[in-house]
Amino acid sequence: MSTPPGKRVRRWSVAEARAKLPEVFAAAAHAPQAIFRHNEPAAVVVAPRDFVALEASRAARQRETLADAFAGLRRLAAGAVALPRRRNALGLDRRR
Rounded to whole angstroms, how far apart are CA atoms 61 and 65? Predict the structure, then answer.
């Protein structure tokens, strides 16, 4: 799940997050909060609704079978595919 436009992930050090835990939780209601240890990601705090949506998305992907994936590809291939005209190095159309 990516962060929606307008929602900026705030970076916290572990020590800062520990000292300001209520503030981290409050900010997580609006945007994910990334916690770093030695400039490496250690955790991300997200709102419960975002976590539930992420878990539902993951469960749906796990239920998809290989046959489902091929059926989706067949649906894509059934539509008309518009291919651009080939051009040479000078940008001129090639004769076919």
Answer: 9
pTM over 0.70? The answer is: no
Look up residue 2 and give its amino acid: S
Span 25-40, mean pLDDT? 95
Domains observed in the chain: 7-46 (3.40.1620.10), 47-77 (no CATH)
Q: Which residues pair with 34 in a beta bridge?
A: 11, 44
Say which residue the tokens 């799940």 belong to. Answer: 1
Confidence category of residue 81, pLDDT binned at 50, 70, 90: low
| Token pair of 25 as six digits | 């939780």
SS3 56: helix
